[in-house]
Amino acid sequence: MLADFLRTDHTHLQALQPSSEAAQELKLLTEDYQQQIRQQTRLVNQLTATLKAYYPRALEIAALPTPLAREFLQAYPTPEAAAALTERQWQRWARAHRLSETRTQALWDVLQQPQLPVPVHVLRAKARLMRSLVAQLTLVVAVVEEYREAIEDFFRTHAGGAVARTLPIGKHGITAPTLWARLGDAPGRWESFRHLQAHAGAVPVTKRSGKQQRVIQFRFRLRQGVALRDRPRGVPLAALECLGPRLLRPAAGAGTRSSPGAPGAGREMVEDHLRHVATPGPV
Q: What's the gap between Cα 125 and its chain centre?
């Protein structure tokens, strides 16, 4: 069936042009970064379950991926070790980690609260597992930070990096590099903003029934892999995944309302990207 479709409708098809080597490398970097983020999340979940089994009070000290939580667990790996702390020892440890007086006192009050006793054999087994998970998490957190810096440094030297940073989603982090890598820079890949919207999953749907007035809505089918974890707070995922409804339509002069706060520099970036990638390609 596919061969017959190619024979009869080949005039409606367009040859897929690969992106440049720089864009492909950037895409690989962002994909590997997301894999490391998922590995970090798995370790955090395992460590959380382990602490709940024998040391739930430690979860109230700080978020597990932070250095403060990991160093606390290494210094006081069991409830007994935390219970043996004196207030002077705790204040000395808190000053070494630059905690404010208010937070030092609040955490001290947390540590003084009673905890249900745990059998000794459970404590030994879970404490060993906790130390193993903390060691793995420390390594993965460092790797995630290295990937983030590598992506930002690579994108800083990319041709579109300077203007992409002017977007509301591109001021920091790897949101803009990830989107740019997934869009690609091959000439002729996108015929129009509608073509890009269809690829991203923002499909306009017309609803009508009899003589009733039709209503056009957008149905979003988010493509896997663009669910960015480090997107700015308050920015909808659909706006990040599909630049069409928020940026490409205003840039293409479709007469629709642009997203609030979208600067002119962002629209210029989209127009420049469209001029680069929307040129007619070979059939």
A: 34
Pull the structure tokens for residue 218. Answer: 């957008």
Euclidean distance between CA atoms 52 and 167, whole angstroms: 42
CB atoms closer than 10 angstroms to residue 122 = 11
| Amino acid residing at 277 | V
Token pair for 48: 């959380």
Pair 77, 94: CB distance under 8 Å: no
Q: pLDDT for 207-252, tens place per residue?
A: 666 666 565 555 555 454 444 444 444 444 444 444 444 444 433 3
- Residues 136, 40: Cα–Cα separation, whole Å: 9
Contact of 266 with 247, CB cutoff 8 Å = yes
283: Cα within 13 Å, side-chain hemisphere: 6
Residues 6+ apart with CB under 8 A from 163: 265, 268, 269, 272
How far is residue 152's CA from residue 178's CA, in Å, rounded to a whole number?
10
In 3D space, the residue among 140, 144, 143, 136 whose CA is nearest the CA of residue 50 turns out to be 136
Q: Which pTM value belongs to this model?
A: 0.68
Best CA proximity match to 119, nearest among 77, 61, 75, 78: 78
Contact 240, 226 (CB under 8 A): yes
